[in-house]
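Sequence in, structure out. First:
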Amino acid sequence: MSEFSPHLPGLSGAALILGASSGFGAATALALARSGLDIYGVHLDRKATLPLAEAVQDEIRALGRTATFFNVNAADPERRAEVVEQIASERGPGGLRVLMHSLAFGTLRPYVSPGGGPVVSAKQMDMTLDVMAHSLVYWAQALAERDLFAQGGRVFAMTSEGSTRVWPSYGPVSAAKSALESHIRQLAVELAPLGVTANAILAGVTDTPALRKIPGNEEMIEAVLAKAPGGRLTVPEDVAGAICALTHEGCRWISGNTLRVDGGEHLAG
């Protein structure tokens, strides 16, 4: 017997993915392209990792959708204005169906170090909050000001269990994730008159480049594998599938939430 696969009608319009070259952003870009959306992607890659972004674009185009990627700092106001202007010129009012925030660039340092080691600076803290949380607000503002959100549009932001838990050196990112969830709640209310929903997606532990930067990630992976009800880690495609489902019309009344996509991982203690 084949797995149950609900019929979902195709989507139309475009999606803007912040953090589109790898991990959750790349998987979601591909899933939304399969569902019928053209993809705008913002990423920040050096020469060594640029092939990742190029591969994602090639896959999107092979699906018959357009892929327009920008290798820029998503937290730079000038670059943001340039991207929004191009989307506006190509799509016009109501042309954007999805905004996804999946930026994972921040400082992993302790707040205090009794042994005299390095601690997070004010500049590092501000940068982490700006990139991983506040930038969502500024992108949403810019898109709303140009009337780019479609009626029935969706805003998604990737959060983590670390928004409410303490891990070594994770403090700045934890603060950013907590702020990101707060921003989602506020945007859900303020975007509602436009017919746009906003939700945070809390994925289970996923083996991504961002996870590998967290001290103790090997132990974290081992602990999850030992208890996960589904017997495995979350993968980016799990999140991408959930976002695609939430983008369809039947989910128009789901807004302002932090939604877990973890196969029940959090229930296992």
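Second:
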Amino acid sequence: MSTFLQLVNIVRQECSATSGTDLVTVASVTGESLRFKNWVIRAWEEIQELHSDWRWMRAEYSFTTTADDGSYTSTQAGISSRFGYWDRTYCTVYLTATGVSDQTDLGWLEYDEFRAEYLTGSQTSSRPRHFTIGDSNELLIGPEPESTSYTVLGHYFKSPQTLSADADTPELPEQHKLIAWYAINEYGGYNVAPEVMGRAQNKIPRMLATLRAKYLPTIEMAGPLT
């Protein structure tokens, strides 16, 4: 595992940009060192944005329902920072007093179907059975719960992490050098150094393939046609 400072120094070393010693901080760098710092920042953000469903960016939320309220913002769901978007594949509900032994899945409905089912006409509040995402990116559950007796638990995906402090560590579980090679490739383009870009572009596809195999959902093939 490499810190932000260590990644910047790795990139400088690979690009033969060191001037005797490694940087001891990235807090107040200028000139070429600032460019290396920014290349690492952008490299990490770019990797995170390659896919919207990297598994290391998935997190859990949990909140207690409000009586006769079926709409919850990310803040109301207990998510305090870096909310990206709701995971549409997993949302559950259970009676808080009973605990997870009562836990059942909420079925996903597309918004138009959910609106027709739960947002049109008179409704009777009861245990929620379905969920969807509203036009303002709020979590909607239906029917509206009749009480505060329920806990809703599900997953969401975090927005990209931004590196800033020396000791910041990318949330990527492994392959931190992939971040460095992305930054090295940027250095090669900026300085018109084809040999540097060539080394980076030789490393990146293989490391990225390994990362995708480990941290993206498995694609299931459809069965044979009958």
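Remark: The chain is about 35% helix and 20% strand.
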